[in-house]
Amino acid sequence: MMIRSALAGPALAAVLAASAQAQVPAQAPGHSDATGAAHSPASAHAPGHAQSGDEAQVRAVVTAYKDAIERMDVSQTPALFWADSEIFENGGVEGSFAYYLEHHLGPEFADLAGFDFRNHEMKVEIDGDTAFVSETYTYHITFKDSARAPIERRGAATSVLRKRGDEWRFDVYHSSARPFRPAA
């Protein structure tokens, strides 16, 4: 992947302020704190582990995107993605987020009455100015046209977020889904 220049994004602060939940800053797993004490990578996803400031920011960006999808208001989501981001969905290359929003995501919302994520789980790993995120979830979609049956899917997403300056945004986003098969 090519080296990318740092960009500023004041709109991101507004999106995060509206969507982020309070998080307790601590040091990232696998990194040392100001005292030089190392933190174990094994604790990266342990329940109750302390989050670094960077991890909290990454989680806030990912959560802001998920929340915008559920609100079906993606007007502020461009601030969550770098202009040269890449989007992949269900085996297809969607291009930049701007293209994806204009030609795919935006038009789909015109037909929807509701979009709800359920059983959402997120794992985050930070390596310098790069964050690797994996998500699993189910989602439920209803349509304005009540004759259309609701859709229930199991989904997964993997993302790479990059920190440029003091700001984290999506650089690569990939999601896929399959029909939900409840336990028999």
Short structural description:
The protein has 184 residues and is of the alpha/beta class.
Please give a structural write-up.
- The radius of gyration is 17 Å and the shape is globular.
- 23% of the residues lie in helices and 40% in strands.
- Helix 1 (10-19) crosses helix 2.
- Strand 3 and strand 4 (92-95) form a beta hairpin.
- The protein has helices at residues 10-19, 53-71, 97-109; strands at 25-26, 51-52, 81-89, 92-95, 112-127, 130-143, 151-164, 167-179.
- The model is unreliable at 1-48 (pLDDT under 50).
- Strands 4-3-8-7-6-5 form a six-stranded mixed beta sheet. It has a two-stranded parallel ribbon with strand order 1-2.
- With 184 residues, it is α/β, with parallel strands linked by helices.
Euclidean distance between termini CA atoms: 44 Å
Write down the overall mean pLDDT: 79
Share of helical residues: 10-25%
The helix count comes to 3
Reading the helices and strands in chain order gives: HEEHEEHEEEE
Report the principal-axis shape.
globular
Q: Tell me the major beta sheet.
A: 6 strands, mixed
Radius of gyration: 17 Å
Supply the helix-strand structural class.
alpha/beta
Low-confidence stretches: 1-48
Lateral arrangement of strands in the main beta sheet: 4-3-8-7-6-5
**Number of E-state strands:** 8
**How much β-strand is present in the residues?**
35-45%
